[in-house]
């Protein structure tokens, strides 16, 4: 009797454990579900291979749809977004990355805007100095002309004198 009661309790415990496993098993067996937002978070940092300068998350081409599905599969397999981007960079080159690495030839992409702003500032300051100098020269010429108006007239040059003499003779 004692063994039968004990056996009944063990059987009940095993059945409860199996029931709990049946409830939990579908959740454990489910693949990791990757949402569209997670895929687009990775895809926005990649460019379309077909359309020039179009982010992968907004491109309507079939190639981009295939790439987004590949991103979904890789994320479901447990890869991080950085690993997915590194995969695409290895497969298709750094040109597919929205933010190329800051090394090698790509360093030119990062430094050229800074150099352009500095050069623009230098040229602009030189231009402004030239404008100020020419404005100062014009003011000096205007002042000199007003002073010359009070001075006695300067004799005309030889050509003008001959021209006027010929006109008077006609």
Notes on the protein architecture:
The chain has helices at 2-29, 36-43, 62-76, 81-92, 107-150, 158-169. With 170 residues, it is mostly helical. The protein folds into two domains: 32-100, Orthogonal Bundle (Helicase, Ruva Protein, domain 3); 102-151. Helix 2 packs across helix 3 (62-76). The mean pLDDT is 78.
Gyration radius over CA: 42 Å
User: What is the correct CATH architecture of the largest domain?
Assistant: Orthogonal Bundle
Strand content: under 5%
Number of domains: 2
What is the highest CATH level, the class of the largest domain? Mainly Alpha
Distance between the termini: 157 Å
Based on Cα principal axes, name the global outline.
rod-shaped
Q: What's the count of strands?
A: 0
Order of SSEs? HHHHHH
Low-confidence stretches: none
- Give the oligomeric state of the chains in this entry, treating copies of one chain as homo and distinct chains as hetero: single chain
> At the fourth CATH level, what is the homologous superfamily of the largest domain?
Cytochrome C biogenesis protein
Query: Might you state the CATH topology name of the largest domain?
Result: Helicase, Ruva Protein, domain 3
The major beta sheet can be summarized as: none
What structural category characterises the helix and strand content?
Answer: mainly alpha
Mean pLDDT figure: 78
What is the count of DSSP helices, taking H or I runs of 4+ residues? 6
What is the share of helical residues? over 70%
């Amino acid at each position: 009797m004692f063994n039968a009661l004990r056996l009944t309790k063990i059987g009940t415990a095993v059945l409860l454990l199996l029931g709990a496993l049946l409830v939990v098993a579908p959740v454990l067996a489910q693949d990791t579900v990757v949402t569209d937002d997670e895929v687009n978070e990775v895809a926005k940092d990649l460019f379309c291979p077909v359309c020039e300068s179009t982010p992968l998350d907004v491109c309507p081409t079939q190639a981009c749809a295939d790439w987004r599905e590949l991103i979904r599969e890789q994320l479901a397999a447990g890869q991080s977004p950085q690993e997915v981007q590194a995969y695409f960079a290895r497969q298709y080159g750094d040109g597919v990355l929205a933010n190329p690495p800051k090394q090698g030839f790509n360093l030119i992409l990062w430094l050229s805007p800074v150099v352009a702003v500095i050069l623009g500032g230098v040229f602009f300051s030189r231009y402004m100095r030239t404008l100020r100098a020419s404005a100062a020269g014009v003011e000096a010429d205007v002042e000199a002309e007003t002073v010359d108006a009070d001075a006695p007239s300067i004799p005309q040059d030889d050509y003008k004198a001959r021209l006027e003499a010929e006109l008077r003779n006609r």
